[in-house]
From TrEMBL:
<feature type="domain" description="Transcription regulator TrmB N-terminal">
    <location>
        <begin position="25"/>
        <end position="89"/>
    </location>
</feature>
<dbReference type="InterPro" id="IPR002831">
    <property type="entry name" value="Tscrpt_reg_TrmB_N"/>
</dbReference>
<dbReference type="InterPro" id="IPR036390">
    <property type="entry name" value="WH_DNA-bd_sf"/>
</dbReference>
<dbReference type="InterPro" id="IPR036388">
    <property type="entry name" value="WH-like_DNA-bd_sf"/>
</dbReference>
<protein>
    <submittedName>
        <fullName>TrmB family transcriptional regulator</fullName>
    </submittedName>
</protein>
<dbReference type="Pfam" id="PF01978">
    <property type="entry name" value="TrmB"/>
</dbReference>
Length: 125
């Protein structure tokens, strides 16, 4: 089970026209480079960390940490591929955009409902 992300929804209130990347980063509590990593995987399903070094222009350890966060948030799937000489490597695939959109809508709807409850329960004291 994925840990609850530390939403940064307040940041969305500061922008009248946030980008998809900003919305994703704020709602899932991930860093912009982690959002870019997710988007790179959308175009490169089944990639290994080594295969993403070039397109992302990031070092292996940074990509590995981003993948761990994305995996914990339920934004990527990880499959183990056995290597010919022994051992294995992980291949990552982004969760499909429609599913991520539904996750974003759900998180924002929950947040909005909470804010509405606060407003409705306020009695002026």
């Amino acid at each position: 089970m994925a840990p609850d992300p530390e939403h940064r929804l307040g940041e969305l209130m500061e922008s009248s026209n946030p980008s998809f990347e900003t919305v994703m980063s704020c709602v899932f509590g991930i860093e912009p480079h982690e959002t870019r990593t997710y988007l790179a995987l959308v175009d490169r399903p089944g990639s290994t960390i080594d295969e993403l070094e070039g397109p992302l222009e990031r070092d292996r350890s940074t990509i590995n940490r981003a993948m761990t966060t994305l995996y914990e948030r339920g934004l990527v799937r990880r499959d183990r591929r056995l290597l010919e000489g022994g051992g294995y490597v992980y291949q990552y695939t982004a969760v499909a955009l429609p599913e991520v959109r539904a996750m974003l809508h759900g998180a924002l709807d929950t947040w909005a409902a909470t804010v509405h409850d606060v407003i409705d329960e306020f009695d002026g004291r």
